[in-house]
Amino acid sequence: MIKSAEDLRRLREEAKALTNIRAGQGVEIIVGMGTCGIAAGAREVMSAVLDELAKRDMTDVRVTQTGCIGMCEKEVLIDVVRPGETRITYGRVKPQDISRIINSHVINGQIVEDLVVAKLD
């Protein structure tokens, strides 16, 4: 229930964030969830991504999953796609890497070079 102007502003910002996600204007994180990815720990990485975003109250980041990317030896793979920037694929990602990826790349635009396995335009 809206009881104040502040409640209305908060509701407006929440709706705007959801609209940006649907329109593809926000950052997207894609987790490789093929059989090879799951065997390497993709479920735990996906949980770490969702937990970290929730902890930081980042509602403008879209998290999706994909099947096998074809680099099974480099699983777990995640892609970070920032609007207007090169798509970055991180490999051999562990749950403990997620906080650094989100803080450095998703929030601050700084690629975590030691985990990069591909850069796609």
Question: What descriptive keywords fit this protein?
Answer:
Glutaredoxin; 4 helices; five-stranded mixed β-sheet; 5 strands; 121 residues; elongated; alpha+beta
Residue share in helices? 25-40%
Question: Rough shape?
Answer: elongated
**In terms of per-residue confidence, which ranges show pLDDT below 50 for 5 or more consecutive residues?**
20-24
Question: Under the CATH scheme, which class?
Answer: Alpha Beta
What does this molecule look like?
The protein is an alpha+beta fold and 121 residues long. The protein has a single domain (26-120), classed as Glutaredoxin, CATH 3.40.30. Helix content is 40%, strand content 19%. It has four helices and five strands. It has helices spanning 5-22, 35-40, 42-55, 98-107; strands at 28-32, 62-66, 78-81, 87-90, 116-120. The protein has a five-stranded mixed β-sheet with strand order 2-1-3-4-5, with helices on one face. The chain is elongated, with a radius of gyration of 16 Å. Residues 20-24 have low confidence and may be disordered.
Outline the secondary-structure elements:
Layout: H1 5-22, E1 28-32, H2 35-40, H3 42-55, E2 62-66, E3 78-81, E4 87-90, H4 98-107, E5 116-120
Parallel strand pairs: 1-2
Antiparallel strand pairs: 1-3, 3-4, 4-5
Question: Could you write a compact summary of the structure shown?
Answer:
The protein has helices at about 5-20, 35-40, 40-55, 100-105, and strands at about 30, 60-65, 80, 85-90, 115-120.
